[in-house]
Fold this sequence. Notes:
9 helices
Amino acid sequence: MNKLLLTAAALALSAGAAMAGDVVRMGTEGAYPPWNYIDDNGEVAGFERELGDELCKRAGLTCTWVTNEWDSIIPNLVSGNYDTIIAGMSITPERDEVIDFTQPYTPPDPSCYMATSADVDVDNGVIAAQTSTIQAAFVAEHGATLVEFATPEETIAAVRNGEADAVLADCSYLQPIADENADLVILDRTEKIGGGVGMGLRESDTELKEKFNAAIQSMKDDGSLNALIKKWDVASTF
């Protein structure tokens, strides 16, 4: 019995901590351009791929990339399927109760509404948002009717097929879609939600958090982080 308990404890520790020298598995969604997406070669690409690779280099870590659906991205971090979340995740008090965060690597990105018409009443309409996002929480708290979808693509489809009057998401995600589609427009109104975007880690991984915090700070100090933000046009700069 004691042996079984010790074995279980050892497994829990190995799942709960990314120790120095191990390969660090970087978890992302792979479905939220330009933050993260899958390129034509089937590889993770985007702002966070470039950022994550540079952070791992500066921290002296060997990193690999793992994709996971958004609605289970936090539970799968906690259960040990990967060691970080780097997926456009805004830092919120609710998430911080479950996992830990590095310092933000972007300031808060404004959220935009996109619709098929510029005269949509977003205060009293039906608004689509991806489930478990800060935008979904914002809509639910501010009186409009919320419809949630598992993927960002489904929120756009809901606007097009009339299930929703508008979609609320990061401006950096919606603007390129509106630019490429004449039937979709960005509304004048924006919302400031969340406390910036950071890397999510298990609460037990304090050493790993310190390494990534130092790497993020070094990119802020030498200006390379702002240059990367401008390159990918994902948010305002620091």
